[in-house]
Amino acid sequence: MKTANSALYRGNSPIETLQQAIMRMGMDVIQKQIMIYAATELFQSKSISMKNRMQALWKNCRKVLAFSRILAIKSGRYDPEMAQMAGLLSDLGIVAILNYAQEHRDLHGDDNAIDETIRSLHSQINGMLLYQWNLGEEIVTVGEESRDWFRNQSDEADLCDLVLVARYYSQMGTPDNKSLPALSKMPAFLKLQLGFSAQDSFSFIEESEAEVAAIESMLGSV
Question: CATH code at 213?
Fold first, then answer.
């Protein structure tokens, strides 16, 4: 009901019952929202040493989700609900690694070991988890390849390309900005054909601020 009454889905009158929420949003949207909220629970941490990492990861995943949805609508070629779910799940492997680390005291406080594990195993673990969840080949590909800035598997853009660009936008203006490649050189951005140039991306991000904030507010914190 909270989602149905959010800025993204609300209509002329507020939703007061679960039946009204289902009627407004539809079962397909409901199913994807359930998956998103189920995944959100994985970001919870009982370990104080991991809590900050989980919270930082959640904030980033939330922003990737937001831009994935916005870019899906902008392009007109992707289901916004599927896109935002893919954006959130694109870093599920990191969640699994952090959950493993918090259960093994020998890794507590060893940030270098954790970071190296994430760099070397994240994509593989992500793909395996999403495959086990039976979310389909498209989502599995996002899990395995959405950190490869120069990914170029075909001439046509796919959902993974969309999430890649969403990830790029989520990192613009942050400390990670220094490690970003030139957007104009990224095959994913060029293939998406969003109707604006790489140089116009800052304007696009500014114009999207209110919508990003609305999506982040709907998801809440962990």
Answer: 1.10.3210.10
